[in-house]
Amino acid sequence: MRIATYNINGINARLPVLLRWLAETQPDVVCLQELKAPQENFPEQAILEAGYQAIWLGEKSWNGVAILSRGHAMQEVRNTLPGDDTDTHSRYIEAIINKTLIACLYLPNGNPAPGPKFDYKLSWMKRLQEHARYLLSEDVPVVLVGDYNVIPTDMDVYKPERWLDNALFMPEPKAEFAALVGQGWTDALRTLHPDERIYTYWDYFRKAYDRNAGLRIDHFLLSPQLAGRLRSAGVDRHVRGWEKTSDHAPVWIVLDDPTD
């Protein structure tokens, strides 16, 4: 089973890019972030014609997450992250696909920091940890995947000294991410590529993509039931070089199909 994540940075603006990539790679499951479209403006028909069913949670102008499935039935489980009934941001959605719970997330950016947005980011991460702990207690195969807006280590950023005051790289979010992984989750890309500089995002400015001045902020965390089924992982880096593309590239893993 090939699972991918892609911060699309506006699904209607980037729809030709998305459809081209889907046709080229044909992943079984796709998690999308930053739809930047209200619920009624999701391009469901185009996605269906590409061979995918979809569930999504839209939001006007900002945020938004979706899960696409090709060839597997999909059962939506929830579309909010528990822990704060006042949080109306469209950042989290879960579905069961092929006996696996797929949790697609778009973690808050947190800039400028310090400030209310940074506080919200840390609070959201605490909620994510609590829900992730619950998912582990259920003893089921789970993938926590999406744009985490966290640079875990110096290896995950070009020139780390330039990011010291950025909410993606400050000590508090890094510590929260490490605490999350420390619950027993496997960071898929780093596990298979322990010594490589792998980036998933390149800014539009200063020719960052041409210089490979990137960040790794899109992550797959696997529950213990899936760690042994992980076969490969990578980044479709070339997609970032396409015309009118997102500032992220698609990231993917391949898992052995479940046997039970």
From TrEMBL:
Its EC number is 3.1.11.2. This is Exodeoxyribonuclease III. It comes from the Bacteria. InterPro entries: AP_endonuc_1, AP_endonuclease_F1_BS, AP_endonuclease_F1_CS, Endo/exonu/phosph_ase_sf, Endo/exonuclease/phosphatase, ExoIII-like. One of its GO terms (molecular function) is double-stranded DNA 3'-5' DNA exonuclease activity. Its cofactor is Mg(2+); Mn(2+). Pfam families: Exo_endo_phos. The keyword Translocase does not apply. Keywords: Hydrolase, Magnesium, Metal-binding. The gene is xth. Belongs to the DNA repair enzymes AP/ExoA family. Residues 4-248 form the Endonuclease/exonuclease/phosphatase domain. It is an enzyme of class 3 (hydrolase). CDD domains: ExoIII-like_AP-endo.
